[in-house]
Specification:
By secondary structure, the protein is mostly helical. The protein has three helices and four strands; from the N terminus they run ββββααα. The chain has a domain at about 5-45.
Amino acid sequence: MSHGNMPTDRRQCCRRVFSNERWDFKGHLCALNATLTHEGKSYCKRHYPPNVAAKEAAQRAENERKWQAERAEWAAKDKAAQHQRACLEAIASIGGDPATVQELVAALRLLTCSRHFHVEAARAVLAKLPEVK
């Protein structure tokens, strides 16, 4: 295959690539020079199968690390929400009896340990209550 003044001994990468062009629905051969061979086929460094496999393995490991971090974050948020619900149920079960203010303060202190968005509101309520011993 000769194109103008290009050398005829140039090997082209055998990998089929696709672009976002409307006309490129079947793809075309990679335009890079083949510098490596694998199982009798010529590849450029980008499409050389061992390089592709290593890159995909690294990407899978990175994705798995991110997903594990997200799962841990979701579990922590779920645990905090469950903790907050339990504290709110305990406060609701106390009622408005003045004799149980100490239990209310203890429940609010538990609520402030939570990492949920109502922590500041609970701290404000705690600040308004008198110190109970």
